[in-house]
């Protein structure tokens, strides 16, 4: 397909988020011209789903080839040992120099080694699922893709899966068409462990999203965001007015709010499971996984604030009951070619749970909605204050979970980016992502997406 036609088509689909009724016949034809994805067990764009479940449920690990897929002669496969400092450094350099940039090349994710250890080493992680490609002659790492195990559930049905992430190919080698081979190789390695489904996300439209969420941004340090070009002064406003608009209180207000401790795990898991049961796409955690994701380790060692990746807080009432918790993680941006600022502190809302509406039989009733909306506004307001203390300049959230209940009230502006969720080798009916047809926040229906991906 002509590159210009493909770009135009993706832009159109980005606006309409996969609504084929908006496409011409030629565009429909072009959309089917994804040569690689046509060979994979994924939903097609125009495929009618009559029943949810695996697309191909016939294979066993014995059916999967034992040898890696062929690689171009000058390159070789490399299983990356992320416990080895030098190999971890290789991944660090590759992603920080070649991973996703904004379209103007002003910002780039600035992954830290602490973030990689948190994201790539949850309980059950496997070394062979950190797949690299190196230059044979020099050993330089020029491509990477990873998988971690997750216990996924789709509308209450358990779907053992992996989460695919950190797909990156060196900028100078993107014409070599390594991405399809990377995907095939990570799939082979996962299938060898008798796991056949995967969850992954992308900003671009591929065959075929099960749901789409929109990014929302809550400025914290508006002056800095404006100075680096992350945001502009709106027409009819002054910089001083914008600073005043986004100024946060100095102190949190929720009574009983404190940092999470290891002793909280049992109560938090019980609350979390009740809260997450409302959503149609969720991830379940066992105790060791919960400890890893919400404490950033085994919970026994103290992590200095400047090395923290995940920040988790609980609300404990006077009887010692945990009624709520929220968490957010740090993933800063490198600011490219700026005279003053080299980094933006970015906070991302992670998982949360509340018992505010659990006593109601209908979560969408007026009383239940009011109770949860009031509680979430208070909790996430405090989260932004704590993010400011952690030197974050902006706080990001998706329209997933029950987020649309507080996004407007807490001054989260809708971003330009959309995140499409995909299921590999699994058909599923569409899942609401918290968006109306015009891509504005859907406060009434909210979302049915309970899973949060990094």
From TrEMBL:
Function comment: Adds a myristoyl group to the N-terminal glycine residue of certain cellular proteins.
EC number, UniProt record: 2.3.1.97
Subunit structure: Monomer.
Protein name as catalogued: Glycylpeptide N-tetradecanoyltransferase
Stated family: Belongs to the NMT family.
Organism domain of life: Eukaryota
Domain (Glycylpeptide N-tetradecanoyltransferase N-terminal) ranges: 54-213
Species this protein is from: Maudiozyma saulgeensis
Subcellular location: Cytoplasm
The keyword Repeat appears for this protein: no
GO molecular-function terms, A-Z: glycylpeptide N-tetradecanoyltransferase activity
């Amino acid at each position: 397909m002509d590159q210009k036609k493909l770009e135009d088509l993706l832009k159109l689909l980005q606006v309409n988020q996969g609504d084929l009724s908006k496409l011409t016949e030629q565009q429909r034809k072009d959309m089917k011209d994804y040569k690689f994805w046509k060979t994979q067990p994924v939903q097609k764009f125009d495929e009618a789903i009559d029943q949810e479940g695996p697309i191909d449920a016939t294979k066993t690990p014995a059916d999967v080839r034992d040898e890696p897929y062929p690689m171009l002669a000058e390159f070789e496969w490399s299983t990356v040992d992320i416990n080895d400092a030098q190999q971890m450094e290789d991944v660090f350099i590759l992603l920080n120099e070649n991973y996703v940039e904004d379209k103007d090349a002003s910002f780039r994710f600035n992954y830290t080694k602490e973030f990689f250890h948190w994201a790539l080493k949850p309980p059950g992680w496997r070394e062979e699922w950190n797949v690299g490609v190196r230059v044979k002659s020099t050993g330089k790492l020029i491509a990477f893709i990873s998988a971690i195990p997750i216990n996924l559930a789709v509308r209450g049905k358990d779907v053992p899966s992996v989460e695919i992430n950190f797909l990156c190919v060196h900028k100078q080698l993107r014409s070599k068409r390594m991405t399809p081979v990377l995907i095939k190789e990570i799939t082979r390695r996962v299938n060898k462990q008798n796991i056949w489904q995967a969850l992954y996300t992308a900003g671009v439209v591929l065959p075929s999203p099960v749901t789409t969420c929109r990014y929302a941004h809550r400025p914290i340090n508006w002056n800095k965001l404006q100075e680096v070009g992350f945001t502009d002064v709106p027409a009819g406003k002054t910089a001083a007015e914008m600073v005043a608009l986004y100024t946060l209180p100095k102190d949190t207000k929720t009574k009983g709010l404190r940092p999470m401790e290891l002793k909280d795990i049992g109560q938090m898991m019980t609350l979390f499971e009740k809260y997450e049961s409302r959503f149609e796409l969720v991830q379940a955690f066992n105790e060791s996984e919960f400890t890893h994701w919400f404490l950033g380790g085994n919970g026994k060692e103290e992590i200095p604030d400047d090395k923290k990746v995940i920040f988790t807080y609980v609300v404990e009432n006077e009887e010692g009951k945990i009624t709520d918790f929220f968490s957010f993680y740090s993933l800063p941006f490198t600011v490219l070619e700026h005279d003053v600022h080299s980094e933006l502190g970015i906070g991302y809302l992670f998982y949360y749970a509340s018992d505010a509406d659990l006593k109601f039989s209908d979560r969408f009733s007026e009383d239940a909605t009011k109770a949860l909306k009031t509680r979430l506004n208070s909790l996430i307001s405090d989260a932004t204050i704590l993010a400011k203390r952690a030197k974050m300049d902006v706080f990001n959230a998706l329209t997933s979970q029950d987020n649309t209940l507080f996004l407007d009230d807490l001054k989260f502006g809708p971003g330009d980016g959309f995140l499409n969720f995909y299921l590999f080798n699994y058909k599923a009916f569409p899942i609401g992502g918290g968006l109306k047809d015009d891509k504005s926040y859907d406060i009434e229906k909210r979302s049915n997406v309970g899973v949060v991906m990094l």
